[in-house]
Structure formats: C-alpha cells, structure tokens
Amino acid sequence: MATILIVDDHAVVRGGLRQFLADTDDLEITAEAATGAEAVALVQESDWSLVLLDIGLPDLSGLEVLKQIKRLRPNMPVLIFSMFSEDEFAIPSLEAGASGYLNKDSRPSHILTAIRTVIGGARYVSPTLAEKLLAGVAPTGRRLRHESLSRREAEVLLMLSKGTSLTKIGESLHVSVKTVSTYRARILEKLDVQSNAELTRYVIEHRLG
C-alpha cells in the first residue's frame, strides 16, 4: 500500500481526496498538513510514498515547501496539486524538484494516473501541457488578468488572499517588507483591484486558492 501525505489548507480538499482514494486498493492518505510548516515537520519525522502538495498555503509558498522537502528527503516524490494554471507553475515546480503537476480541475481518472505515475518513479504532466512543451508553443487566446503575474507575484497573491501579513510573506520568501509591498502594488495594478479584500474576492471567483 502506497502511503500519501497531503498538504492543503482546505479541509474539504483533504477530506475529499481521502474519501476518493479510500476506494482504491493501493493508495492511502496516512497523514495531512494544513500549512507548509506542518508539512516540513512531518517530512522530517517520516517517509511517504508520495507528498501531494498545494501551492497556495497560508504560511509558506508551496514552491518553498517543495524545496525544503527535497533538501530533507531528495528521493521523496512530490506531486503538485493546485488550482493555478499549468502554464504558470508547472515548469517552475518541475525545476524545483516536483515529480509532476496536476490541476485540481482534473478528472478523477487523471488524478489516479498522476499519483500512480509519480509513485512509480516517473514524472507526470497533463497531456495538454505535454503537447505544449513538445511543440514549444505558448498558450493562445484571451489571457485572464492573473495570467500576467510573474511566478513570485502569483505566490504573493495567494498569501495575501489568505490574510498573511507583509512581514510574514517577506520572511517566507526571504525578501524585505518593502519588496513585498512592491509586489502587492504590481498585483493590484495587474488584477485591476484596489484592496486586499478585492484581491481575495478575485482569487475566490477564479478558484485560484
């Protein structure tokens, strides 16, 4: 039986995945974490067949958690499970050591395929992303406002939407509060919103968190 650690700050996501995988004979969620710090602590204590990791965590960027996990246990496979577009985060995640990237909108069959593929020692990206990578073609069509954000701006966006203070964000990303404020200003401008409340509403409406 493959053991899985799921890291997601939404209890409904953790519960839904636990129930979904309970119907399989070979996969089991044996531990849960709601924050990056909890995830890192659990990885220090135990080994898992797979870590299923969200990018939008309240305390640390999922990419930072990924890097810490790989430093602690280089051979432990990590599958990113996020609402953010593959076009924005898949490549940075793979470069940081992830074994795959999966969007939360994926079909149940694709979720199982991704999990089993990564546990089996291979990498996983969706067929759509694989085609784009092979063709070297950038996505076309009308871009949503958040798609213009840089990777770092997207990380800051997620943390701001969860109420994380500028100081905490700076500590998490190892940058100054002034730098975080600059990121925030750019995000507000690019999303065409005026406040953190509107920013949070945007994240909710576009299911980015």
TrEMBL record:
Tagged with keyword Nucleotide-binding: no
Residues in Response regulatory domain copies: 3-119
Domain HTH luxR-type: 142-207
Keyword vocabulary terms for this entry: DNA-binding, Phosphoprotein, Transcription, Transcription regulation
GO molecular function: DNA binding
Domain of life: Bacteria
Keyword Nucleus: no
SUPFAM superfamilies: C-terminal effector domain of the bipartite response regulators, CheY-like
Pfam families, per database record: GerE, Response_reg
Gene3D superfamilies found in the cross-reference section: 3.40.50.2300
Positions of modified residues (4-aspartylphosphate): D54
CDD domains referenced in this protein's UniProt entry, alphabetically: LuxR_C_like (cd06170), REC_NarL-like (cd17535)
Biological process (GO), any one: regulation of DNA-templated transcription
Matches recorded under PANTHER family: NITRATE_NITRITE RESPONSE REGULATOR PROTEIN NARP, TWO-COMPONENT RESPONSE REGULATOR
Official protein name in the record: Response regulator transcription factor
Upper taxonomic lineage: Bacteria, Pseudomonadati, Pseudomonadota, Betaproteobacteria, Rhodocyclales
